[in-house]
Amino acid sequence: MSGVLSASVVADTFTLPTIDYGALAPVLIVAAAAVIGVLVEAFAPRGARRPLQLVLVFGSLIAAFVAVVMHAGIRQLDGGGAVAIDGPGLVLQGAVLLISIVGAMLMAERMVDPAGDAFAARASTLPGSEDERQFSSRGFLQTEIWPLMLFAVTGMLLFPIANDLLLLFVALEVMSLPLYLLVGMARRRRLLSQEAALKYFILGSFSSAFFLFGSALLYGYSGSIKFGKIAEAIAGNPGQNMLILVGVGMVAVGLLFKIGAAPFHQWTPDVYQGAPTPVTAFMAAAVKVAAFGAILRVFYVIFGGLRWDWQPMLWVIAILTMLIGAIVAVTQTDVKRMLAYSSIAQAGFILLGVIAANPAGLRGAIFYLVAYAFTTLGTFAVVTLVRDSTGEATHLSKWAGLAKTSPLTATVFAIFLLSLAGIPLTSGFIGKFAVFTAAIEAGAMPLVIVALFASLIAAFVYGRVIVLMFFADPPADPPAVVVPSAFTTLAIAISVAVTVVLGIIPQPFLTLLEQAGVFIR
Amino acid sequence: MSPSAYVVLAAILFTLGSVGVLVRRNAIVMFMSVEMMLNACNLAFVAFARMNGNLDGQVVAFFVMVVAAAEVVVGLAIIVTIFRTRRSASVDEPNLLKY
Description:
The complex is a heterodimer of chains A (521) and B (99).
Chain A: H1 2-11, H2 25-43, H3 46-70, E1 76-78, E2 83-85, H4 87-107, H5 130-137, H6 145-158, H7 165-183, H8 190-222, H9 227-236, H10 242-259, H11 267-274, H12 277-302, H13 307-330, H14 335-356, H15 359-385, E3 386-388, E4 391-392, H16 402-405, H17 407-421, H18 427-441, H19 445-471, E5 480-481, H20 486-504, H21 507-516
Antiparallel strand pairs in A: 1-2, 3-4, 3-5
Chain B: H1 4-23, H2 27-52, H3 56-86
Helix pairs in contact in B: 1-2, 2-3
GO molecular function, one term (chain B): oxidoreductase activity, acting on NAD(P)H
Main location (chain B): membrane
Subcellular location (chain B): Membrane
């Protein structure tokens, strides 16, 4: 027996996959820029690093976005079936790139903090030590954040187009590892930041181990790591099998962790609060888009035939996610933490699009993701502006009466909150509408009722902050709203524009999503 | 010996690793437990490669080793920073972020 087996292993000759490098250009451009960024860190003089890195970051992200746009209409499997370049994948890649451009603008901001940017001058110095004081008083800036960010973007670009389990795992880690480090690099409140990094790292690697063991079980069941082959194996063997059911569950744990779905959401509030706010904005938006892209592909392409087995599991998770996110957000007193719980609730709403498992659900989920991502970028961008002597004034009591000190900031923040609450004429409303109608179409009416209930609770949370900003008296020591440089101003302007435009004229984007079609199998 | 025994062994190692993450309180030990889980995955992949008669699983095992090495670099950097700040690698002590 074993002789036969080993003979077959030897006979299985290795064929080189053909790779269409042009179709992978967006990923390759960003990865190359990240590697060049590391070289810049090693060889360029200190003063030249920041300008060089900014040129690299914005240049590569814009070039990659142009490449994505030029690929519109491509629908092919690449690299021996390891990568699927199709409509939804390209839309998600484009979204990740635009979000990263706006996120990079926030990270590049140097005007809001008198000491420099949002990152520790040198992350290795002890908090409160003489070294730390020396480094920041000399005005040193941490420029290693830029290659780290580009590596994370590389992973995010691969994540929604990965079409085999190995590439999905590698993309997951390429996306996560730089983010673990970025989270721990805040200039102020460094103990919180380091604690957040530790928690994110331990829980993140724990969940990716689950993902990997689930992949091993799927591979054991089907004999292949390609999504298409696994789907064929599932379709070829109707009836339940422990290997495949446990495999689906464990792969789902790894992916659901990344979007912060309950009961795998515990890291979200801690990490969102502890991380430097520009990083929070970037990861809250971009990770969610990339990870939901992967979830949608995995559940639509591989597990489509097992719908009746995984739908009950996702029902429970979606209900838990929506309710826990919305209800716990009510009790929060910290703006960043409140937004973190709200992002958990939002992830629950987007899960409805996954559960619907129809083309309308796919379109709705992607629309919601893009709408949510830009609104989130905007909210966290505003959070960076409201400051007191210790840094950002994140306690909600400090935000009371903000409209009296800075009507513009309060109005902009209110627009974002209204969009998160799903008020008509904002992108959040269209997103919720699209996802909910898709879920009703798929017969998930009870789920939609729970979702509406959860949105009601969430709307109370957002409404309370708006009332606080506009109708409460300012505290005795009100925080100052600083005037940012062009970077943050532009980032907020783009976020407001996307939020409002997608709310008033969503049709062009919906048409684009319809043209994008469904995932290639 | 049939390859399925190795899958059982992999499952046992994975369980031991996950119990280790859940019950131990030292960040380094938790991290070692995660590495054990990854290696259990490798064993499962290689055993399944043998059972399925193709090389995919063995290729995956190589990639997982590289990823695990990268994870060690990032993880130890974070844990050492925390240790230098707090003079302890216990995960119970960093408790500023809660509720």
